[in-house]
Amino acid sequence: MTVNGRIRVLESISEVKPTTNPYLTQLVEALRARNDTKVELFSFSRAILGRYDVFHVHWPEVTFGGAKPVGRFARRLLTELLMLRLSLTRTPVVRTWHNTERPQGLTRWDYRLLDLFDKHTESVIRLNDVSQPTLDVPVHTVPLGHYREWFAGYPRADPVAGRVSYIGLIRRYKGVEALIHAFRGVETPAATLCISGRPSNPVLAETLRVMSNEDGRIRLRFDFLDDGEFVSEITAASLVVLPFVHMHNSSTVLAALSLERRVLVPDNDVNRRLALEVGDGWIHLYRGELDATDLERALAGSHPSEAPRFRLRDWNDSARLHLKAFSEAARLDR
């Protein structure tokens, strides 16, 4: 059922605040700007007792996760009730397929809850046309949106010649150690490396400090960056390097391109297709382990004369394509 011709969507995020992933914030805002969609944010009371046509889920494990054991136990029980409610009301789940694999290290109860989310999923939204979701349900492709409007109000820095930058959360799988190791062999005159972001744990932070100590060209900034600082760090770079071990969907790549900075990323199907989309010179690819030659080659490239081209990455397009997936899952004709 709809209300006044509007499909009712319950999003799995509970609030939108300054630290919320801009991808989620822009999606919610774009959906709410439409006159055929009513969007509510998640709470267990709303999810179990409220009325909605579709439950849109990003990371299911967040629903029942938590830092404290008592809170996790309560959320697991409430998630069981939510699954029962979805079953009784035959309310579909639409999943955005952010990751290629399930999270590791969860309990048997958690994996059972993930199985229940899978059971109730009627449709999957993938963020590129390479991803192959493992569920046997209809699949909709909705490309990651750009960040041009999101960052438009922030001042930009002039690019510093020779500056290589990594910006974002620092985790083991993001390859920052490999980046430092490769950069220490770079011989490009005036080359510098700036790493900005919050490490996932103190051990990783100390490892990076030790690796950087002997090279005065490397600067570490272990802080959470607000949007203004994020824009400043990216735009001060001549080259943004994202050496993720397994790169599938990266908002940081889209952010750097939206701010018109060149990127160096692993050579895979997703990045090759993105390189064709945005145009020559914006995306540099490397194969195998990142090394100094890869960095020197990308640094030697010239800045493209035209801005990156984006296809179906405007948030109005994203909202329209999401609505199509929601409507089909709810078996509504639009």
Automatic annotation (TrEMBL):
Gene Ontology terms for molecular function: transferase activity
Spell out the protein name for this chain.
Xanthan biosynthesis glycosyltransferase GumI
The record, for Gene3D superfamilies, names:
Glycogen Phosphorylase B (3.40.50.2000)
Q: State the UniProt keywords alphabetically.
A: Transferase
Source organism per UniProt: uncultured Microbacterium sp
Superkingdom of origin organism: Bacteria
